[in-house]
Amino acid sequence: MATIRIDHAKCNLCMECIRECPFDALSLADGEIQINAGCKLCGLCLKQCPAQAMIREENGRKKADRDGWKDILVFVEANGGAIHPVTFELIGKALKLAAKLSQRVHCVYIGEGAAKSAEALKGYGLNRIFVYDDPAYRYFSAQPYADAFYDCIAKLRPSIVLVGATAVGRSLAPRLSTRFKTGLTADCTVLDVRENTDLVQIRPAFGGNIMARIITPYTRPQFATVRYKVMDAAKPLPGSGGIVELHRAEISPSRLTVLDCIKKQAQANISDADVLVAGGRGLKSEKDLSMLGRLAELLGGQVAGTRPLVEAGFLPYTRQIGLSGRTVKPKLIITCGISGAVQFTACMKTAECIIAINKDKNAPIFKIAHYGIVGDLYEIIPALIRKLSEKVNK
Question: How many Cα atoms within 13 Å fall on the side-chain side of residue 323?
Fold first, then answer.
């Protein structure tokens, strides 16, 4: 188990660690900095200590067999032969991570008819494309999919496994990490890798109070699920092939039999929108959403919001941006009355253009906005609507 100790000979009592600790786990007593039971081992004090007096120690655990696990494996999510866009985002990130390690990227594709649609993955810099094509995989079912996924990992022994943080991915990844008795970090927003192949998995934690940096130094493989729309999608690489290999896995008996699959009626998805107008606590009532709706209409976009609006019943959860909602990456997003808590910004900060409207000039949203307007949204938005309406009517 890890612990943090203080080298009091180095400590100059600058108090920086006490000020930065989000859990009040540090205090000054008898002329020394002391650590109490509130410590969550987040490591923030290690990064903030200018004297490097904070030391993290690992007690009694062996490091992972890093030499026995190499390369990166990406799970291909598909429905009826249509590959989910998150797959290409994962491939794009995997290629960047693998380049740092001089390793290769592979993918595993499970589904009936996968052998045919797997051809679309060639030319994206992949080395091997493991295909499990069987009628048993016609509809997604966690048990048979997990069996095939497990078979692939056991054969390849990848150091890192990346899965989309979708309904399918969130069902599969915990099952696989449990089978291999290893770690899984869910809903990552940033990924990096160290020279020793430890995957640095970054995501908001403790209600968004900190951005946690998580590593898995004792076990392999390292599992991470990544939210859609937070990474840059891979682009075709001329001359890069990708060998399609057909594999079979023993499918264990299941108590569940899927008789049919009925598609839901297609709905507008804020994750795919090019333009979004998002409202927050600054909105006074539900009827004020019509104002945002008019602005979105003039811009050819959609309305979205923060968690408080959804909890108040102003918007359905499908229009919520944030850790408990959707991740978006539009060309333009206009935030109206949104302060900019990390739970929200972590899921929209990669937008090409962010325009923030807020009365508080110190609102955190202005730190990531490309353009900021300090003022009352009830004055600014109607003015924008008038100008846009005039332009449309000309």
Answer: 18
Q: Flag whether pLDDT at 102 surpasses 90.
A: yes
**Average pLDDT for 279-297:** 95
Quote the pLDDT of residue 23.
87
User: Could you tell me which residues come within 8 angstroms of residue 169 by beta carbon, excluding any fewer than 6 positions away?
Assistant: 75, 77, 86, 163, 225
Q: Give the Å distances, CA to CA, from 290 to 205, 296, 386.
A: 34, 10, 15
pTM of the entire structure?
0.83
Distance CA 306, CA 345 (A): 10
Distance (Å, whole) CA 292 – CA 287: 10
Confidence of residue 1 (pLDDT cuts 50, 70, 90): low
pLDDT confidence of residue 392: 80
Q: Which residues contact 29 (CB under 8 A, 6 or more apart)?
A: none
Q: What is the DSSP letter of 263?
A: P
Q: What's the rounded mean pLDDT across residues 213-219?
A: 93
Minimal CA–CA distance to 205: which of 228, 222, 189?
A: 189
Structure tokens at 171: 């069902």
Q: Where are the beta strands (DSSP E) in 38-104?
A: 54-58, 72-76, 78-79, 82-83
> What's the token pair of residue 77?
């999510």
**Residue-by-residue DSSP string for 131-168:** EE--GGGSS--HHHHHHHHHHHHHHH--SEEEEESSHH
